[in-house]
């Protein structure tokens, strides 16, 4: 589970939140337990900066729940951006999305998958598909690494 690493990246780039989306009650409970430990439990006093980062994390059982929460908060339609390790037709380049984000007045949700990636249904429902991070030969980064690289490319100062 990459919760705290992704939360730290989100805090570094001043994002409005991180959504862990899983329909599995056992995973939902585990994520909530980790978050409570760092926000309300012993972890809060042990590592206050982790508490700050983990306060950005919200748990939802569906994409629709996360999208609804963001839409209500921003009072605007959410633009969805799919990510993945595989090149796909019509992918948007980082420089293009960076420009779109800099001019946007509505919220964006960048969607990361784990394990086997995002489902075709999720990808089909996204407004943009981001070009994959390309290494030299092996192309299977952890979600925490991919999230950090993508956020830096889209929101970093360079």
What does this entry look like structurally?
With 158 residues, the chain is mainly α. It has two domains: 1-61, no CATH class; 62-158, SPOUT methyltransferase, trefoil knot domain (Alpha/beta knot). It is 49% helix and 11% strand. It contains eight helices and five strands; from the N terminus they run αβαααβαβαβαβα. It has helices at 3-12, 25-39, 42-46, 48-54, 63-74, 94-103, 120-124, 143-155, and strands at 18-21, 57-60, 79-82, 108-111, 128-129. The protein has a three-stranded parallel beta sheet, with no helix packed on it. A two-stranded parallel ribbon has the order 1-2. Helix 1 (3-12) crosses helix 4 (48-54) and helix 1 runs parallel beside helix 8 (143-155). The longest helix has 15 residues, at 25-39. 19% of the residues are buried.
Task: List the SSEs and their pairings.
Layout: H1 3-12, E1 18-21, H2 25-39, H3 42-46, H4 48-54, E2 57-60, H5 63-74, E3 79-82, H6 94-103, E4 108-111, H7 120-124, E5 128-129, H8 143-155
Parallel strand pairs: 1-2, 3-4, 3-5
Helix pairs in contact: 1-4, 1-8, 6-8
């Amino acid at each position: 589970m990459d919760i705290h690493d992704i939360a730290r990246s989100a805090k570094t780039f001043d994002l409005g939140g991180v959504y862990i989306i899983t329909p599995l009650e056992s995973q939902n409970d585990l994520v909530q337990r980790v978050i409570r430990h760092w926000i309300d439990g012993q972890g809060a006093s042990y590592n206050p900066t982790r508490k700050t980062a983990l306060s950005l994390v919200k748990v939802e059982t569906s994409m629709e729940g996360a999208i609804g929460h963001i839409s209500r908060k921003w009072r605007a339609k959410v633009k969805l951006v799919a990510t993945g390790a595989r090149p796909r037709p019509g992918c948007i380049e980082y420089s293009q999305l960076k420009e779109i984000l800099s001019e946007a007045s509505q919220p964006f949700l960048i969607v990361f998958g784990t394990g086997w990636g995002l489902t075709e249904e999720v990808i089909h429902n996204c407004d943009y598909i981001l070009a994959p991070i390309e290494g030299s030969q092996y192309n299977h980064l952890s979600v925490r690494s991919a999230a950090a690289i993508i956020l830096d490319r889209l929101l970093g100062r360079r």
